[in-house]
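Field log, afternoon session.

UNIT: design team B
ACTIVITY: writing a sequence onto a fixed backbone
BACKBONE:
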């Protein structure tokens, strides 16, 4: 596997959350979580259902307000930023429940995405500049959706919609990409395509990536570091092999069965 080696421990984090707390009613979805992502890393964020992974993404991208903690991105305190400001700074994401405009074409989704992320309000009716359309087309080629360019997004397979969302997330040319279950519900052939695209984004394009993923084989394959959440707390954080071999992690995930079945 030719992924980048993990970043030197003395580098400054690209993204750092300290003591992140988030409750819904009486339920602590996140109970004081620390997380650091270094430039060039591919970090896996894993944990059982309901352990707080998506909530952590929502906090980091500023979609959810925090009850406690601070978040820094590129050295700037973004705790009080709006999502569009964070996007402009170079952080982009995909969603566990795919968010594409099903009744718009693939290329329209790409163009609209850039306007969502780059401005406070989407300029749906504003014609795109030729260089923006060109960028969208280049990215459609990257996510292997050129042939579907004028198809309605709602007509794409689930895996193709996930690839489209990755393409949309790349329109703003982010430095950091957060992928929430990019392969869940996707057929195995497209899982391979998504795995390959994630690898290329990191190794060829230098993107830093955090991926929430239940496919542990894929995590082992792609990630240099893994963070494990359990009941809103961080259970483990470290080099991928050590974390996946940790009996406490297996226990949290699968009870006594272990990560390898
Ligand atoms: N908007 C919300 N309102 C109320 N409770 C919420 C909300 N969002 C998340 N929760 C709760 O917070 C906890 C963490 O949810 P979260 O979606 O972050 O988990 P997750 O690790 O992403 O799970 P999964 O693997 O199933 O996607 C869960 O108990 C969930 O029910
Ligand atoms: Mg989730």
């Amino acid at each position: 596997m030719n992924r980048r080696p993990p970043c030197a421990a003395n580098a400054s984090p690209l993204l750092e959350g300290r003591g992140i707390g988030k409750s819904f009613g009486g339920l602590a979805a996140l109970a004081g979580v620390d997380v650091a992502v270094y430039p060039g890393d591919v970090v896996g964020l894993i944990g059982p259902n309901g352990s707080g992974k998506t909530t952590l993404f929502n906090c980091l991208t500023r979609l959810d307000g925090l009850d406690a903690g601070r978040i820094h991105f590129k050295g700037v305190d973004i705790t009080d930023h709006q999502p569009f400001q964070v996007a402009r700074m170079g952080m982009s994401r995909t969603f566990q429940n795919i968010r594409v405009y099903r009744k718009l074409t693939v290329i329209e989704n790409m163009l609209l995405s850039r306007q969502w992320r780059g401005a406070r309000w989407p300029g749906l009716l504003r014609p795109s500049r030729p260089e923006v359309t060109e960028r969208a087309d280049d990215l459609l080629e990257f996510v292997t959706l050129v042939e579907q360019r004028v198809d309605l997004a709602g007509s794409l397979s689930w895996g193709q919609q996930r690839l489209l969302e990755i393409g949309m997330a790349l329109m703003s040319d982010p430095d950091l990409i957060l992928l929430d279950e990019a392969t869940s519900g996707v057929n195995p052939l497209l899982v391979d395509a998504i795995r390959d695209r994630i690898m290329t984004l990191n190794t060829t394009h230098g993107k830093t990536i955090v991926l929430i993923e239940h496919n542990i084989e894929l995590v082992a394959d792609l990630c240099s570091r893994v963070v494990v959440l359990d009941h809103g707390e961080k259970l483990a954080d470290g080099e991928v092999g050590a974390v996946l071999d940790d009996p406490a992690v297996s226990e949290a995930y699968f009870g006594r069965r272990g990560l390898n079945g």
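LOG NOTE: The first helix runs from residue 53 to 60.
NEXT ACTIVITY: expression trials, pending approval
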